Amino acid sequence: MHRSIWAAAIVSLTGLSTVSEARESNTQWVDTFIGTGGDGHTFPGAVVPFGMVQLSPDTDNPMRGVSPQPEIYKRCAGYHYDDTTIVGFSHTHFSGTGHSDLGDLLVMPITGEVKLDAGTAEDPDSGYRSRFSHDKEWAQPGYYGVELLDYDVTAELTTTTRAGMHKYTFNSAKDGHILFDLTSAIYNFENKVIWSDIRKVDDRTLVAYRATNGWARNRQMYFAIQFSQPIDDYQFINLDNMRYRCMNCLDSKQKHSTIENKAVKMTAGKAVKFVASFNNVDQKPVYMKVGLSAVSRSNALENLQTEIPHWDFEKVRAQAKQDWAKYLDKVDVEGTRSEKRQFYTALYHALQAPSIYQDVNGQYRGVDGEIHDGKGFEHYTLFSLWDTYRALHPLLTYIDPDRVSGMIQSMLVHYQQSYEKMLPIWSFHAHETWTMIGYHAVSVIADAYLKGIRDYDIDLAVEAIQSTANNPVYDAIPEYKKYGYVPMDVLPESVSITLEYAYNDYAIARMFEAMGKNKLAQQYYARAMSYKNVFDPETRFMRGRDSKGNWNKDFNAYEAKYMGPFTEGNSMQYSFYVPQDVAGLIDLMGGDDAFEKRLDDLFDTPLSADMIKEHEDIAGLIGNYAHGNEPSHHIAYLYNYAGKPWRTQERIRQIMDTLSSDKPDGLAGNDDVGQMSAWYIFSAMGFYPVSPGDLSYAIGAPQTPKVTLKLVNGKTFTTTAKGLSKTHKYIQSVSLNGKPLNRNYLTHADIMAGGELKYVMSDKPNKAWGRDNSARPPSLSEYK
């Protein structure tokens, strides 16, 4: 039975009708399996918008570094569509990252013999994992279900913000078990678990704790677990001692009844597991609720009791779906079934992070490891800023600006709590990973401030921005300020770092100028021109240079070398990373025609595998354009700045047609916490924020006939594409609220004013539209 049929069956069983499906409108278009194949690295499980809990199946568990690295990378989200076995269901997951961690508190319902190890995908019978089939797997926003074939158990999952709810229907067995494996994680490094414990509070309640060393060091999580019926038997397993823990028996492998035995009620160590056993499970499903907290067991229990005070699984599921409908219905899309599925699934993925990292009582664990009171604002985690500053955060300013303020306040308390006095770089779960480059939190703050989103401590934001952009301990900032670039003999990835610092400084300048801090603004505008210092006029490429000013002798524009001058990219790609001053870059490259040719060379010149063999993130290739990695995301829109917008229109269609689909492998690379999805959403509407903070959007070409944004100010902004088809990919003309729009960009003010942006499409390009200098998006060198 295919999962869509199963979904219909589940709807029927739960009393939900096609009428209610229609009422919940746009949730029906989400396919949570898009991106779970290939290298999309998304997960299909249950989560609510910005939820702290991501309750999802794990299809493999690479143990202690045994699996080859590509297999680890393949399963960064815990689940991969190619797999055929499920290890269990864990409560925390990344969506679309290039790194693996999390997978907290793995749970697996089983029947028959209790096996303590997961076993292998090659030999599922050797452990507690189970085979499954996509034909008997189904999901909707906020809900996931699957048949565990080896146990004949129907597993169903749903969530609130801070708690998950499980429903296990044992279809044939009379007795059933639920295994908790606190050793399991998404990619188990050797000795990843620092410490863990699990305690039986009463015959329905457990509490647990785990601290891990993974990508984040000494990351702590607490759990409160409740069952819908009493536990009939139980086992504590502590593999540290290589035996079952028992204080009051001679047989160390005896299994204990909660009624007949007064055995120990807890165990602790680095390799702890627990089995809860239930009799007569064939008579009714076993329900389980799990609350999470990074603060304490009592907070985890409070989160659980506050958010799920009952045992009505369908009520929780319906509320989760309603939460998603509230967000997905903020945008109405007309188009083909495939277009709607891609658009709404992209929106679904874009609204999962940053995620809440705060208990219902306001407490949260800070980056200093201490417990803080966050009453007065919502505290968030998971800031993948090198990725998400580009399009995800600009998108959130329209979808939920109130949350943006909370996210910025979360960044500001991160700054206050950090020893280095830095805004976050790539942070999650109270830890800074220092992954990737730049200080892109300043872009998020500046873009929001300039759009009027200011419900946070503005003075603190100015302080944090200044401290971060001038921090003497972070990635050669002193050398950047001294030389006007980061020398390659001081730090690897020096060219990329220089270019991204320069953009960040532009965003700072824009914000400070708007605040009337003109002297400071001019300092940062000057720093924003630093990109010129790594542009080699001889080769007309961005190129590494040392502290003596000498150019890199081993320069190869096509090579993406690990620890080389560029970050997950090559000079072909990064030579276009001057989003703040594309007009200035065009001049350096020799003018409009030369710039167009360089863009064509990027898209049309094949990139050999040997040139990118050290970087698995470089994916989704069209020539040297790598849609699967963020440094390429703005490039297709740069033809606009050379007065050739019809070329952008061609490239956007090329990318959409070849690198996006509504299939499990429909993402060209890992989604990077919603960034690729946000690119899709903007591009489907026909415009994109090339340089967040300048409040302009380069117009590309719409990919859907009609999109309506429902803005928080009560207005709507609608894009319509008259005559759009597979052949009619070119813009013939554009009008805004009935008046001709001759510039090839939009502004934030245009969007917030509401109204209609109407594209008239043709099978032939209009080479006159958007060509004049005055029609091109703004650039720093033109208006500074």
UniProtKB/TrEMBL annotation:
Q: Which GO terms describe its molecular function?
A: carbohydrate binding; peptide-N4-(N-acetyl-beta-glucosaminyl)asparagine amidase activity
Record-linked InterPro entries: 6-hairpin_glycosidase_sf, GH-type_carb-bd, GH92_a_mannosidase_put, GH92_N, Glyco_hydro_92, PNGase
The cellular component terms of Gene Ontology attached to this UniProt record, alphabetical and capped at eight, are:
cytosol
Domain annotation Glycosyl hydrolase family: ranges: 299-762
Q: Which residues form the Glycosyl hydrolase family 92 N-terminal domain?
A: 29-293
Q: What UniProt keywords apply to this chain's record, in alphabetical order? A: Hydrolase, Signal
KW GTP-binding (keyword) present:
no
**What's the protein called, per UniProt?**
Sugar hydrolase
Q: Which residues form the signal peptide?
A: 1-22
Q: Does the keyword Glycoprotein apply?
A: no
According to the record, the segments passing through the membrane are none
Q: Choose any GO biological process term that the UniProt entry carries and state it.
A: glycoprotein catabolic process
